[in-house]
Amino acid sequence: MDLSALDSYEIGEFEHSGKSRTILRTGSGPAVIVMSEIPGITPRVAEFGRRVSEIGCTAVLPSLFGVPGEKPGLRNSVRTLQKACISREFSSLMTRKTSPITDWLRALAAFEHGRCGGPGVGAVGMCFTGGFALGMMLDERLIAPVLSQPSLPLPFGNRRKKSIGISNTDLEVVKSRVENGTCILGLRFSNDSMAPKERFETLSREFGENFVSVEIDSSPGNTHGIGIRAHSVLTEELVDEPGHPTHEALELVLQHLKDKLVAV
Question: Which CATH class is domain 3-261?
Answer without folding.
Answer: alpha beta
